[in-house]
Amino acid sequence: MNHTSTKALNLTLKIWRQAGPDQPGALKSYTLTDISPDMSFLEMLDVLNEQLIAKGEEPVAFDHDCREGICGTCGVMINGQAHGPDSATTTCQLHMRRFSDGDTILIEPWRARAFPIVRDLVVDRSAFDRIIQSGGYVSVNTGGAPDANAIPVPGHAQQDAMAAAACIGCGACVASCKNASAMLFVSAKVTHLADLPQGQAERSKRVLNMVATMDSEKFGNCTNTGECEAACPAGIKLSNIAQMNREYMKAVLFSCE
Amino acid sequence: MVTVADTTLDGRCPTGNMASRWEQRQRDLKLVAPHNKRKSTIIVVGTGLAGGSAAASLAELGYNVLSFCIQDTPRRAHSIAAQGGINAAKNYTNDGDSVWRLFYDTVKGGEWRARESNVYRLAQLSTSIIDQCVAQGVPFAREYGGSLANRSFGGAQVSRTFYCAGQTGQQLLLGAYQAMMRQVNAGRIKLFARREMLDIVVIDGVARGIVTRDLVTGKFETFAGDAVVLCTGGYGNAYYLSTNAKTCNVTAAWRAHKRGAYFANPCYTQIHPTCIPVSGSHQSKLTLMSESLRNDGRVWVSKSKDDSRSPDQIPEDERDYYLERRYPSYGNLAPRDVSSRAAKERCDEGFGVGQSKMSVYLDFSAAIKRDGEDVIRAKYGNLFHMYERITAENPYKVPMRIYPAVHYTMGGLWVDYNLQSNLPGLYVLGEANFSDHGANRLGASALMQGLADGYFVIPYTVGDHIATRKLSPVSTSAPEFGQALSASKSRLEAILNVNGRHSAEHFHRALGKIMWDHVGMARNEKGLLKAIDMIRQLRDEFWKDVKVLGSGESFNQNLEHAGRVADFLEFSELLAYDALCRDESCGGHFREEHQTSEGECARNDDQFCYAAAWEYQGVGQESILHKEPLTFEECPLGTRSYK
Ligand SMILES: Cc1cc2nc3c(=O)[nH]c(=O)nc-3n(C[C@H](O)[C@H](O)[C@H](O)COP(=O)(O)OP(=O)(O)OC[C@H]3O[C@@H](n4cnc5c(N)ncnc54)[C@H](O)[C@@H]3O)c2cc1C
Ligand code: SF4
Ligand code: FES
What we know:
A: Ubiquitin-like (UB roll); Fumarate Reductase Iron-sulfur Protein, Chain B, domain 2; 8 helices; elongated; B: alpha/beta; Flavocytochrome C3, Chain A, domain 1; five-stranded parallel β-sheet; binds flavin-adenine dinucleotide; binds iron/sulfur cluster
């Protein structure tokens, strides 16, 4: 494993504070003492917020919910890295034993044109919803489905689909990319459904619509820097992007959509 | 003592042959013509499995759906966290499962405290859920030949659990979310994310709308409709520490209760046996280690008290595999309530392990020896990884340490067979209602229930309300909307105006401690009376001493939290009171006064074979008890034994 601290930590935090979308923002410094290495990163922020409230200062806004790495709600830049230093780990699953006594930690929100800041470390990721809305589904109404085993799915297809479907929609891929591209996110849904027999009927239409929405939502272009893959907590791969590019080319060249 | 209503409550179940009751009811329900559906508006609060599936299905039928959730997107509802799986009586494994057996296991698992007709319907619908989800592209685990795979889960001797690696809830929720987003695209669902429902609006005794607060701008809004469907999840966070997501709350259900909806069986809470133990006072939530681990892990403690040896130094014959010892036929797969209490019993007796002595081992060494590390990694790799990340211990080498934690709440708003509360027009689905799990829920059955309610029950039953009740058109300019709105507003203003010394977090933690200590895994009269007293005191303190900074007109997470804590402080008293009044042990409700000589639940069917539905009388006032008698025709009352 990586570096681990076993003793209590004293830290300096530099946190982005911004009262609202149209307000100016700035970094503010805080010191914290006696932080247990067993705390999660968000529990460390809880401690800070309790101290701020006690002092009469407004606590730092940050998004979180499940605190177990699955809902995709949390996510901040930690020393310039989306979700911090551990690979395949969300902010809520990062633990303070990864830091050293005396560290200064820089904490900022996701920064991307398509993700406007709501307050402090909280951003608006509804652009992701609009991308899914434009085609990230199989059009089947409740009721008329055939018996589940009537659609056999070969083991490898299921595994590929599952690996892609694991995307938690956190936005770290966008935040880590210098172009703020959403290709990794979009490719995860496109390949999940393209890998399965259920997704075939809308295969071309889906990729065309989702890519068009991605562009209109002001995400940047992909220049293959690979930062997204490194930041992704759910193990979505650059190969998903490659597969999506093939899907897209096929759709442009051969489909009648 | 308890004030009991004169008349009993009726679940309005169909009668006759159990297997054809749902069909019978479907025949009797009135339909709404397509052009009238387009004119009807249905408010769906919550976008978890229950709310997501309901919103999508209702919109597909042509209704106008307004969908609300607290999270920034419907895809993040708490259902996303479910790991283990979803049950269905498909009998693909040919191991003797059937609709009847799933029904029987569920009634028995719930200690004969659920409504038979509902449970039977749930078992029947379970098979269609899997069909529906597969058609949506949910990537369930498969066998090599491409057919669906199953595994077994606590409380069952057949393999009927479908799963997507360790992320079943995530995949099922994404299926429902995508179906919803398709309807958003079609213009039939209007989505309101980051909106918290703060009240329901009742006009002439019928639910006609809701009050919400926009969590980004702080703006209060009202919405009118022809029915309100609450899918707002469970209240496990009354205990502060639980496996629930941080925003899980009782607010929506409690506000509906204060408007007249009965709250049923709040004391039925589920404590899950396999969670990562508390590591310190900073702990903000507890993490579940899926129950599926008990398929291969063996639970044990040392046979000697206060044994400080490391686990590898304790020889085999000095280990107490207490679940296998006490429950030879189910062993490590004994149901949750039974396994949790057994762990507590060992720790209370001084046999606990780890630094705090408040945990037991879950050991995979036998399975690793038998199958090899690779096989175990393939099955549970992500869970082992999560465990190591949190504890910095490697479970391939050292046994996991686990301890029970609050996980699920069987109680909820009372609903009839149609999932309608006693307030006409108010429907309650998923974990928020009380209907199907009795006093204890079996693993992999909550996902099943949420989706059955949303995909397959509400689309039929809500139409009957719209078709039979001649609803006059309503708009948010009706005075009842204005009144409810200003009541919600002044409550939040009151919280902001206290300007005391302690954060909402402080009060939430204090409440959690009272609940865990006195209304937790084992309860007794003295402790419950004490808890009620302490909750009242804490509630008074809250209103004198809570400190919330900032304003109500902005994104203010502390204000949100404080509002939810204020509701938990009212609700928890009812939970404790219900536990006090249910003077028997059953499922998740264990009263120390009522146990067998072997420490198992001693039920009292003569006096308590009913669902307790409480009618609100005011904060701190004693509620009125409405009893819904439970009768058992297909699975006669029996003893719940897993020996
Ligand atoms: C860690 C974990 C693992 C689990 N694993 C399993 C499993 O393997 N199998 C199984 O069957 N069950 C499992 N469960 C239980 C199961 O996940 C839940 O019971 C189920 O998902 C609840 O679904 P729901 O739709 O009723 O509510 P939720 O998913 O809790 O959704 C509630 C919704 O209501 C919204 N909401 C709440 N209050 C308000 C309000 N006031 N205003 C507006 N919106 C509101 C929320 O935003 C959310 O959208 C697990 C639970 C946990 C905690
Ligand atoms: S692809 Fe990875 S980083 Fe991007 S949203 Fe999905 S889980 Fe997050
Ligand atoms: S809070 Fe859910 S992923 Fe971090």
